[in-house]
Amino acid sequence: MPDPSHHLDAAHWSPLDTDDWYAARNATTALRDALVRAGLERDFPYLRADLNAFGHGLVELGRVSPATAEHLAELLRLALASAAVPHPSTEADHEPGE
Description:
This protein has helices at about 20-35, 65-85; strands at about 50, 55-60. By secondary structure, the chain is mainly α. A hairpin with a 5-residue loop joins strand 1 and strand 2.
């Protein structure tokens, strides 16, 4: 007869036993920190880490106002434009092997 103590069911399962939970939590923390730096910490009241019924990690952004969505879109546009602009590199000032 199988040993029932090795069977995980809903009574024994914990999100803390999964890597997906920690990945969702870490991503949520990174996003929270970026939103704080952008002054948007009050605009995402539903931000949280979560797992779905299959145990897949998710970051819940929740509902936001149209103004918040526009502000976030503008920040993303600025970030993408900044990434497209070549930046001077200190590595270019040195010969290989220096």
